[in-house]
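ok trying this again, last paste got cut off
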Amino acid sequence: MARGKKKSIPTGGTARRIQDQRNRSTQNISLDKLIPYHRESINGNPVFHDYADEKLEQLADSLERDGQVENIIVFPSEQQPGKYEVLSGKQRTRAARLVRQRHPEKNTLRATVLDLQSVKANTFALGDLTYVLTNVHRRDKLLFSELGMAFEMQFQAEKHQGKKVKDSKDTLTKLAEQNQTSPSFVKCVRRFIPSVTIPEIIDLVDKGVLPMSTTAQTLTYMNQASQKAVIDAVRLASQKINCPFEAHCKRALCNMVMRGLKSIYDAQIGEMDDPEANVFIEDHFEDRFIDFEPKVEFKAPTRKTLQQVIPEELWSDRKAASEYLVNAMDELKRYKEKYGEL
């Protein structure tokens, strides 16, 4: 799934059930009767973050200028009779309240009202799926942590429906199809939830300090005590060399180092009496995060890259092209010895 790109809700059984519900009644509902979906967090952690003040103001300005373009999706609250829980449109509801401060008469939003019994069936499976799919496909630039929580809620909702997936497709594959992405992406991103990975690592991945894929395959498969030991070691090293933590973290926890730490972890965890204990001792780090110099892994240049540096008349003569590159490297070496870096 292309992050930051709007997508329409895909077709399929779940989408049809959501659309069938959308075709129910439409009402103008007072803002005072609209409340958040009571299942919008997992173990106290929100699935989607609220918009920051600046972005919310922009949404309010758009709503004030252009009016409401699309219905929000709600259902009657069982816990608070007379209220409606918002499955899709929480941020528009928040923005509408800002508009109401400027224009008190603008006190309602147009809403598609879903049937309570259908929404809550199978442990709120349809409610959760509607909440996740409409938000994932409407929002721009979701964080990996938001996608992770969304995929986890979607995964559990699919399981609660208690129906076999057609064509023997497992739930992971079905989630990938619904979100227009790959099963491997869904599998990796689902690692970035608080029950699996410590908040510090989730935050570093969200900020782009650590690569999502490698981190998902290495650090997140360690127990949380070991994850914390790694992050604490990097933080201590950054303080000793007076380097900003995130900058040093990006440099020290490269792909090669994370894979090496995972190898140490795998070798040690089987010998631990407590599977949740920290497996790393000081010797495992060996000051590698202080005197660390990342090794540069050689990657063969592509044909296109070589053609950019080798004269066109040599492209068909492999021997001449090789000699040209060797001579160029020798010249570069002599230049650096005499004048320093370019």
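PB: full thing came through this time. The radius of gyration is 26 Å.
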